Amino acid sequence: MTPRGWLLNAGALLGVWLLISLVPAAAGTTGTKLDSKPASSAAELSTIRGVVKATAQATLASQVQGRISRLPFKEGQRFKKGALLVALDCSKYQAELASAQAEYRGKKKTYENNLRLSEHQAVGQLELEVSQAEAEKAFATVRAAQVNVNGCTVLAPFPGRVVKTIVNEHENVFPNDQLISLLDDSLLEIELILPSKSLAWLKVGTPFEYAVDETGLRYPAVVQDIGANVDPASQTVKVKGLFRTQPENVLAGMSGTASFAEIPH
Questions:
Q1: Which of 13, 130, 197, 207 is buried deepest, with most CB atoms within 10 A?
Q2: Which phi-psi region, left, alpha or beta, contains residue 141 (left: φ > 0; alpha: ψ -120 to 50)?
Q3: What's the pLDDT tens digit per position in 154-164?
């Protein structure tokens, strides 16, 4: 090969090599790992703050107007499900119920009598239907009066403790007035806010320890739920955890710090 031919072949090979080096690798379709750093650093997860919350809490309101006659439980006291929490003077509504029941009994007897007479064609169809409608209307009045009577007593929807009594005995209340605030502390949750990068390894059942500020103690816990979305502004996700064993000296509202034993790389 002449020197001129050798130079031409070398130039061609160099051009092919440059072309190959400039073409980017094809993108994968299943995702690729961006780097070898951990999804969340130990520093990020060493100061995860959280708060203890009750699984259920409610503020109960009055359904009727009346005077408070009984408040059996004071703030901080425990109660069972179905326990009487608030009682109103119900004499007015009981009288209205008795009147409605008497009215219904009379209308019902009239309808039943007309029904028997209609079998012998001794009463017109219109009169029969009117008496039936009046009996049904009277029954609806009884049901409405019974609802008012039921509203005179406020029962506990779940077992728990009284957080706050908003009214006092002998006070007059109206419909939708708040009466008492409750919580169920039989099962306490831990609410945490974690960096969204933690989703790369965080799963339901992941163990962690929760140090409660107020008690100065650490408690073993486990991830129960992971939030359905990531906050786009803060790039964080809400996580709920449960104590492995419910501690007796921890109350709803206490704050603390969560720490995860192992952070996968």
A1: 197
A2: alpha
A3: 999 999 999 99
Q: Where are the beta strands (DSSP E) in 4-61?
A: 48-61
CB 249 within 8 A of CB 213: no
pLDDT over 60 (residue 6): no
User: Identity (one letter) of the amino acid at 72?
Assistant: P
CATH number at residue 178: 2.40.50.100
Token pair of 145, please?
Answer: 């009066």
CB 104 within 8 A of CB 146: no
Counting runs of H as helices and runs of E as strands, what totals does the chain give? 4, 12
For 125-145, write each residue's pLDDT tens digit: 999 999 999 999 999 999 999
The total domain count for the chain is: 1
Q: Is residue 133 part of a domain?
A: yes
Are 261 and 245 in contact by the 8 Å Cβ rule? The answer is no
| One-letter amino acid for residue 220 of the chain | P
For range 51-61, the mean pLDDT: 95
46 Cβ partners below 8 Å, 6+ apart? 259
Q: Return the SS3 of 59.
A: strand
182 alpha-carbon distance from chain centroid: 14
- Confirm whether 79 is domain-assigned: yes
Say if 24 falls within a structural domain.
no
CB–CB of 227/204 below 8 Å? no
Residue 169 lies in a domain: yes
The amino acid present at 81, given as its one-letter code, is K
Alpha carbons 194 and 47: distance in angstroms, whole number: 10
